[in-house]
Here is the input.
Amino acid sequence: MLVACGAMLHDEVVHYGSAAAEIAVCTKAVGLVERSELRLLEVTGDEALLNHALAPAVPGQVPGPRRARSVADTWCCRVAADRALVVGAAGAVDRWRQVVSRAPATTGIAVAANALTHGEVASIVGPKASTVLRSTSLPADLAPGGVEEGRLAGSRVAVVCEDSERYLLLFPDGCAAAALAAIGVSGRPVGLARVGHEALAHLRAARRDSG
Here is the structure.
């Protein structure tokens, strides 16, 4: 049974009838996936101090403003110089919170790491993904690893470009039903359909195998 919470369904949707059909949608048109398994963490602080706090969790270079980096299937999204959103599975996000919180504890710097309990995440996957984003007036002309904030039907949203056919939509305050409806209306002309986790897992595995 699926239990509605806000606009998203927080029990994992395996498929909406046929995983094979949903895979086809994502390879030929565009699929919308409600990422109920993902959690959001907001990290805020002065730019230099935020760099210091994020560094232990991000090997190499901490992403600058409007850039995102993926570390072990967890994204660190620097939506602004003084603010980052971390998105990943619950356990991974909790580990990030502990690592980021350790820097202020040891150095006395003022950085806050807050779990966004109302935050919600969706993915748009497929060759028509950027077309749907443009139709909703969300940022679409992003290079891989780019992130930019916007608004969709009253909901704040950060758009993260994983690659040219994959985008994460991060709703820090939750996703209003009107926001999902707007995506549905914009995606209808190009064949957008709801897609479950089985199809998404298959596509991710195929992508790893081909890479």
In short: The chain has two domains: 4-37+117-210, 40-115. Residues 1-6 have pLDDT under 50 and may be disordered. Helices lie at 19-28, 47-54, 90-107, 129-135, 177-187, 197-210.
